[in-house]
Design goal:
The protein is built from six helices and seven strands. By secondary structure, it is of the alpha+beta class. Strands 1-2-3-7-6-5-4 form a seven-stranded antiparallel β-sheet, sandwiched between helices.
Length: about 220
């Protein structure tokens, strides 16, 4: 899905349709989604210099402080989550082991769900995703600009049918800083909405919010 730019409220409205029919499956559960995420992909030793493994360099990095908070409060504004998922919403704090704090937003009425993880632990940014996740993904789409930052959309496992309901986008905010965001598309939208587009739109909204937090 090459990561394209999604900055306006109109774009957020568009993703509302994409994820408003989401299932209740957790996007971070590869057994449920059929996807290898950057959190569960096998680890390999990392070179000392960043970036590596073909990951693009982040030319205008944000400070690490943008991820020094609660993603349930800092990643998306209430206006953005309303556009993305509708209302009312359930918000669930959690964490991804070995990666960092996480948050899930879901609409109990529609089953809509998006999930974000801040990578505050690995210090490898997008490089770890290129090295560990790219080789094990059936779908891999580099994104040249997610609100000005490089990213990649990835889903599925080689040799298996590409998922029509799940995709994850990883975005590099600095060479050593990244976040992952997932979206699940429910049965009513499967085959008509690209889940990577849905995840990409959510990623654009997150970057917009984090840039504002940094004063960028």
């Amino acid at each position: 899905m090459g990561h394209r730019s999604i900055a306006t409220a109109v774009a957020l409205v568009a993703v509302a349709g994409a994820v408003s029919a989401c299932t209740g499956k957790s996007p971070t559960d590869p057994a449920a989604s059929g996807s290898v995420t950057s959190a569960d992909a096998p680890r390999s030793s990392a070179p000392s210099a960043l970036p590596y493994a073909g990951a693009p360099k982040v030319t205008n990095p944000l400070p690490a402080s943008v991820l020094a908070g609660d993603p349930c409060k800092d990643a998306l504004t209430s206006t953005q989550t309303s556009f993305l998922l509708g209302s009312p919403l359930q918000v669930t704090n959690s964490s991804t082991p070995g990666i960092g704090p996480a948050c899930g937003w879901s609409n109990p009425g529609t089953g809509s769900r998006i999930f974000i993880t801040y990578d505050i632990t690995t210090g490898q940014g997008l490089s770890k995703v290129y090295q560990n996740t790219q080789p094990q993904s059936a779908v891999w789409r580099p994104l040249t600009s997610v609100e000005g930052f490089p990213g990649a959309a990835h889903t599925g496992q080689p040799g298996q049918k590409d998922p029509v309901d799940f995709c994850q986008v990883s975005v590099g905010l600095a060479d050593d800083l990244a976040f992952d965001i997932s979206a699940v598309v429910g049965p009513a939208k499967q085959g008509t909405v690209d889940p990577c587009d849905a995840a990409g739109k959510a990623a654009e909204a997150v970057v917009t919010t984090l840039k504002a937090k940094a004063g960028a």
